[in-house]
Amino acid sequence: MNNSPIILILDAGGTGFKFSAVQDAREIIEPFTIPSAASTLEEVLQKLITGFHECEKRCGAKAEAISFCFPGPADYPNGIIGDLPNLPTFRGGIPLKQMLENEFHVPVFINNDGDLFVYGEALGGLLPEVNRILEERGNPKRYKNLFGVTLGTGFGGGIVIDKVLLNGDNSAGGEIWCSRNCLYPDAIAEDSVSIRAVRRVYAREAGIAFDEAPQPYDIFRIAQGEQQGNKEAALKAWDELTTVLADVIGNGLRCTDGLVVIGGGLSGAWPVFMPMLVSKLNEPYRANGNVIPRMETEAFNLMDPKDIERFTAKSGKMVKVPFSDQEVWYDPSKRVGIGITKLGTSSAVAVGAYAFAMEQLKK
Fold this sequence. Notes:
- This protein is an alpha/beta fold and 363 residues long.
- The chain contains 10 helices and 19 strands.
- It is globular, with a radius of gyration of 22 Å.
- The chain starts with 5 loop residues before the first strand and ends with a helix.
- 44% of the residues are buried.
């Protein structure tokens, strides 16, 4: 009999509440989704309560905690949700943590979806996978830092430094959605890095109304030449998203200096945008006749086998210690890698939520 704690999990978004349960860092029930749309706050809250009760029923055992992601702004440590753009019934500060603890009589932990996504990938996804490949190739380099972004209805982010999730003093660590938009300085980055942005740019370039624009998956297939449509407009839509995304990721990498993982609904279009993204990250700035590196590091596409070969290849040399017969290893190359989620976005969130809850239970 497995006596490990069962943690109830929720991946909450503007359109749906996806419930699951995790034990020993793996999902033990088939995840299920309840639409989040409702006309009143009470109706939304009842959906959350119903979903967690159903989770526990499917587990057939009492959970020891509830851990989930919820959109912000929020005071995550205290579990109070602020005014949400995607869930308009949340206004004025809703103490969600206390409400659920009253109902289920177990500790409740809430965090940001971008935070929990990148935490899951740091513990069981892209970060350990890259380090495993490095070890197999005899490369002594190991990565400890991970910057994650989610591309979907909105634009989320999170940061893990040496396996520690960065929450920030105001529950606002890694909140990249409101970064300045490098193409439209009066707008935020999310206005160009989201599902609506891909459709908007396609409509503009194709000369059609927004409501007539295909969904991003179709725009991806049009850009790939796999579906009929305006290919130039499709490529422009992904190019514009990538330009703004590269600016935000470049700024993030200057601070975190590690790997980058990308998830969310739009991440499946990586065959189109990843080559663009890495190329833009490696493009220097040119001003007044000067060429200035965009980053001190070189970016590699971890979805490209040739780039993985170069990224993980052992490099460097032995150099002599002055005034002695000693030699030490020196590798002047500075590399960062960009990859797509290894676990899948929802599974990564579940792993991250479970690990976060287990940490809090030990305190």
